[in-house]
Design goal:
It is built from no helices and 11 strands. This is EGFL6 protein. One of its GO terms (cellular component) is membrane. InterPro entries: ConA-like_dom_sf (IPR013320), MAM_dom (IPR000998), MAM_domain-containing (IPR051560).
Length: 149
Amino acid sequence: SVDCSFSRGVCDWKQDADDDFDWNPADRDRGDGYYMAVPAFVGHKKDTGRLKLLLTDLKPKSSYCLIFSYRLAGERVGKLRVFLANKKTTPVWEQNKGKDERWRTGKIDIFQGAETTNSVTFESERGKGKTGEIGVDNVILISGLCTED
């Protein structure tokens, strides 16, 4: 498994230069490291910010499970989407509001065909809200398909 969390991860994260705003590090409540976040008040409605995880050394014709923590806190905060590089136009995962402000776990199966996925993009889209934030943390890639638990 590969740990791509932001405090101690070994992965290569890049801010997209062609989007409207950047994701920024935010301190965790317990003080152990940080996560990446977009505050609700950044940008204008429908603006997007993309944070790209560059993946190298994924084996062709194999499957992986991408697991991550996410939080959509605040009224009408916006949307969080995940795109795989080989399917640029359609998100493989999307969430537009949280039931509460708690962290939740997202899981995405990545199937490698002959063409391997070389990046995963987390995209935040600004909503109407003025408070809250969209956050992502603890991004881990493990080989094999995702399990339910």
